[in-house]
UniProtKB/TrEMBL annotation:
<dbReference type="Pfam" id="PF03473">
    <property type="entry name" value="MOSC"/>
</dbReference>
<dbReference type="InterPro" id="IPR052716">
    <property type="entry name" value="MOSC_domain"/>
</dbReference>
<dbReference type="InterPro" id="IPR011037">
    <property type="entry name" value="Pyrv_Knase-like_insert_dom_sf"/>
</dbReference>
<protein>
    <recommendedName>
        <fullName>MOSC domain-containing protein</fullName>
    </recommendedName>
</protein>
<dbReference type="GO" id="GO:0030170">
    <property type="term" value="F:pyridoxal phosphate binding"/>
</dbReference>
<dbReference type="GO" id="GO:0030151">
    <property type="term" value="F:molybdenum ion binding"/>
</dbReference>
<dbReference type="InterPro" id="IPR005302">
    <property type="entry name" value="MoCF_Sase_C"/>
</dbReference>
<feature type="domain" description="MOSC">
    <location>
        <begin position="35"/>
        <end position="167"/>
    </location>
</feature>
<dbReference type="GO" id="GO:0003824">
    <property type="term" value="F:catalytic activity"/>
</dbReference>
Length: 186
């Protein structure tokens, strides 16, 4: 499989989340947004199923969005732009938070994080709840850099700490916090 994924990057998994229930429903509410974060030291991923213990595991409507991934650099850049101070990346409710990976470039591309093969899919668009859970302006500020939704293609375990990301396309870790902007169609 490494022949199909020739680009290798040393990254760090700085956050893992598996939420057994959906916490944010309806209109944003400060009391609900301030709820606890379901931090994990490891995630067990099953091919075609998702993350064990996560609210979306095994749900057909989420088969292409079983694992969400975001770059912590996106949150660091946002905090700098908004002058908010440090932001908790797991408050975005993304399952995997990486340091050193240009996550947005993996849209529509296969990649491997340690022993878990993921099919990068569509953007994990931010929602209005982020203005309450992170900081005012987060909803707008994370557009184009709120991570990606992925389908799990193999079983495996993801752990906090150093990891290896293998990609089918070259990545630029220096661009990890930059937003991907839509271009106008001509």
């Amino acid at each position: 499989m490494t022949d199909d994924l020739p680009y290798r990057y040393d990254v760090e998994v700085v956050g893992l989340l598996a939420a057994p229930e959906h916490r944010w429903e309806g209109r944003p509410d400060a009391a609900l947004a301030d709820g606890g974060v379901d931090r994990r030291d490891l995630l067990e991923v099953r091919a075609g199923h998702g993350i064990e213990g996560d609210r979306y595991a095994g749900r057909p409507a989420h088969r292409d969005a079983q694992v969400t991934v975001i770059a912590v650099e996106a949150l660091e850049a946002l905090a700098g732009e908004l002058g908010s101070g440090p932001l908790d990346p797991l408050a975005t409710r993304r399952n995997v938070v990486l340091r050193g990976a240009e996550v947005e470039a993996l849209r529509g591309r296969p990649f491997r994080l340690d022993d878990v093969l993921l099919a990068g899919g569509r953007p994990a668009n931010p929602c209005a709840w982020l203005d309450l859970a992170l900081t005012p302006g987060a909803h707008r500020g994370l557009r184009g850099r709120a991570g990606i939704r992925c389908a799990a293609r193999t079983d495996g375990v993801l752990r906090l700490g150093p990891a290896v990301l293998r990609s089918a396309v070259p990545l630029d870790p220096a661009r990890a916090g930059e937003a991907v902007r839509r271009t106008a169609r001509t």
